[in-house]
Amino acid sequence: MIERRAEPRLLCSDLIHLRLAGAERADLTANLEDISPSGACVLVEEPLPIGTAVCLVCHQCQFSGQVRYCIHNEIGYFAGIRFDAGQKWSREEYEPAHLLDPAVLGR
To answer: Which pTM value belongs to this model?
Structure first.
């Protein structure tokens, strides 16, 4: 498969909260699966509509964005989130509990 992302994603695992704009259930617990400066993938128990505005609450940091995709699998739903303009993740600002750069594995 050809990688279409402009930035490499780092694999990770950390429990975070999602705040959904305009939803009945506005606060969800999610597992952060991967992250890059411009977006992230989270695992949630229920589907998230594409285009939904969300806020990822990662301990002391928050990142706002929109759901770009939501795919069902046997353990839940993987939702891809693109951060809003001006929002950039950096390791210095927030480091997930478990973080792995897949490029390091290929060395």
So the answer is: 0.86
Report residue 69 CA to chain centroid gap: 11
Each residue's pLDDT tens digit, 25-54:
678 999 999 999 999 999 999 999 999 999
Name the β-bridge partners of 61.
58
Closest CA to 68 of 55, 53, 58: 53
CATH 2.40.10.220 for domain 10-87, yes or no, is yes
Give residues with Cβ within 8 angstroms of 50, minimum separation 6.
Answer: 67, 68, 69, 70
Q: Residue 68 is encoded by which pair of tokens? A: 């770009």
| Residue-wise burial string across 12-30, b where 16 or more C-beta atoms lie within 10 A, e elsewhere | bebebebebeebeeeebeb
Say how far residue 42 (Cα) sits from the centre of its chain. Answer: 4
Residue 49 class from Cβ within 10 Å (0-12 exposed, 13-18 middle, 19+ buried)? exposed
Residue ranges of the domains in the chain? 10-87
